[in-house]
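Protein modeling request. Please complete all fields; requests missing the sequence field cannot be processed.
Requester role: graduate student
Desired output: 3D structure, C-alpha cell encoding
Chains: 1
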Amino acid sequence: MREFALTVCENLEWRAPNGHLRVQACLELLALMASDGLVTLPAKQIAMARTNVPVRRPEALQALAIAAPLATLQPVTVDLVPPQEQALFDATMAEHHPLGFRRPFGPAIRYWIHGRWQGQSVVLGAMLYGTPAHHVAVRDNWLGWSALERRRQRHHLVAQSRFLILPGVAIPHLASYALARSVRRLGADWHGRFGYELVAIETFVTPPWRGTCYRAANWLYLGRTTGQGRQDRRYEQGGTVREVFVYPLVRDPRQALSALEPKEEVDAMITAEEQLNAMTEERIRQRYEMMAPFLDEKQRRLLAGAEAISYGAAGPSRVGALVGLSSTTVSRGVEELRHPDTIEPERVRRSGGGRRKKIETDPDLRTDLERLVSPQSRGDPMSPLRWTTKSLARLAAELSAMKPGRKVSTFLVAAMLHEMGYSLQANRKTLEGNGHHDRDEQFQHIHDRVEDFQARAQPVISVDCKKKELVGNFKNGGREWQRTGQPERVNVHDFPDDELGKVAPYGVYDPVRNEGWVNVGTDHDTAAFAVASIRGWWQTMGRETYPGATQLLITADGGGSNGSRCRLWKIELQKLADESGLSIAVSHFPPGTSKWNKIEHHLFSRITQNWRGRPLTSHEVIVNLIASTTTTTGLKVRCQLDQATYPTGIKISDAELDQVHIEREAFHGDWNYVIHPRTKDA
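Delivered output (682 residues):
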C-alpha cells in the first residue's frame, strides 16, 4: 500500500516544501476515497508479532570539571551528531538541561560541541535546532508577516530549542563561541538534509537566564512573549514570559522570504543559455558563501573580482548582486587582480584609510591627560582630580568637560595611558625612615658571624613573632578556589571572640636546614614567651639536629619581645643557657630593618600564602595550617599550641640584670653579645 502511495505522489509531483513526497497525506486520501466507494484498496497485511525485547537506553554523559581559558581547548568545533549517538544526545539533554527534554517533532538537527582537553577530544556541550514556534507576535512583526504568509513560509525559520553546556565546564566565552560556529554551518547542513533554505534562527530565553551569550554572539533581541501558548485561546493561563532573540542567516530576511514565495508558473520556454547562466550564478554564490566567513575584507574583494572576470560581460554588476557587494567594490577587485603590483601585501585597506585618530585631531588631549594623572599634580590643590579617584570613567568625564565639543571614551583613555607609560600601581613600602649610621656595618657583622657559626657546624636561627591573628569565623586575606557565587561566609565585624581571643605565632627558622618551628601562644607576646618558643625548638628539633652543639646564634629584630633593650629577654636567655649548657650569641638587626630578617621571607610569608582565604576558626585549624606549610625548595614546619600564661609588666632590677653572665662584643655591644651558662657555684 505504501508503494502505491509513493507511486501516486511521484506521478502527481505531490511534495512538501522540503521536497519530500507527501506519502502520509496520500495514504489518508486513499483511505477516504475507499470509504466513499471511489476506489477499492487491497486488504491490509497482518503484521508479524513483535517480541517485547527491552531496549537498553544509553546513559547520559557525565559532568566534567574543566576550568580553563577557551584558547587552551582549541580547536573547539561544532559537529553534527551521528545517527548512532542520537540516543546518547537525547539522554544527556534529559539528564542535564534545566528545562528537561522531549524528542523533537518535525525536522531537527543535533550538534555536539567538542574541544581538546589533556590531549583528548571531549564533549563540552550540545545544541538542538528544530521546528519554530507557530505564532510569536514580536517575531512576526519583525518579519512583517500576514497570517497567510506565516503559514506558507514558517518552515524557512528554525528554532534553537535546546542549548546545553555540560555541568562543571567553566570556560569563559565558550557559549557565544559555540553559537557563532553553529550558525555558520547550520544553513548548509539544513539544506543538505531537508532540501530547502533557511532565512533566520529564533530562540527563547527562560528566566532567570538573560541571554548574555546570545547578545555576545550578535543575535538580535526582539522583545518578550506574552506568556500565552497555542492552547490558551481565552488567555486564561498565565504562562512564562520569555525573551525572544533571532539571528538572520541572510542580509534581508523579509526580501529573502518574498523571493521564496511560490510563483505562478508561466508557459515560457527556458533556453539552454539561460539555464546555464542560472547554474553558473548559483555556483558563484555557493562558492562565495562557503569562503567568505574565513576571509578578510581584501580577500573577499579579490575573490569577487576573480568570479567577475570568469563570468565575463557584466561580471561586476552580476557578481555584486549575487554575493551582496557593490559593483564598485567588485570592479576594484578586478582592477587589483589585473594589476597585482597595486595590492598592498601587509594591509587590508590602503594606508590612510578610515577616520583620523582622536589625538591627531585634538593635539591638547595628551597634554590634558598628562596634567590630570601626572605625579607632580598630586600636590596641586587646583588639579581637578586632586581629591578623587582617578578611574578611567572619571578621567574620561573630566577630559570631555575640559573642552567644548570634546567626547572621550574610557577605551581611548586606557589606550593613551598605556602609550604614555602609565599602569595601575599599588603603594610600595620602601621608605624606612632615618637609618642608623652603623646600619651597613651591622649587616656585615651579622653576615660574618653567621658564616663563622655555620663553618663550625653550630646552629643558627632567625626568630620573630608573626602578627597576632583573630581566632574565629573572621575574614582572612587572599582568595581560594570556591564554587562561583558561593564564597566562604564570615563575620561582618572583626571584634575578637571572648572565648577564642587571639593567638601570637612565634617562629624559629633554621636557614641551613630550611626548617621552621612555630609556637602558637594564646597569651601575651612577652620575652618569656619568646624564649619559651626558642626552648621548645631546642628540645624538639635543635638538640636532635645538632647533638654536638656548644653554641647557638640567634638573629632577631631590635624591638619587641626579643628587643635589644629588653631586660627580661636577657634574663630568660640566661635561664635557657643554664638549662641547655649552650653559649647563646645574639645579633640584633639595626632599627627600621626588620624586613631583612630571614624568617619574614622564608617562613612567615609561606604561612600567609598557605592559609589565604581561609577563616582561622579554631586553634586546631591554625596549628594544622601552619604545620602543613611547604615549598618547592623543601621547607618543613612543625607547630605546637602554647596555652601557658605569660604576664606583662614584670620589672627587672639592676641587681637581677647583673646576675646575667653576658659578654658584650667590641662592635655595638648593645646589639651583639653572648650569654654564657653559669656554673652551679655562681
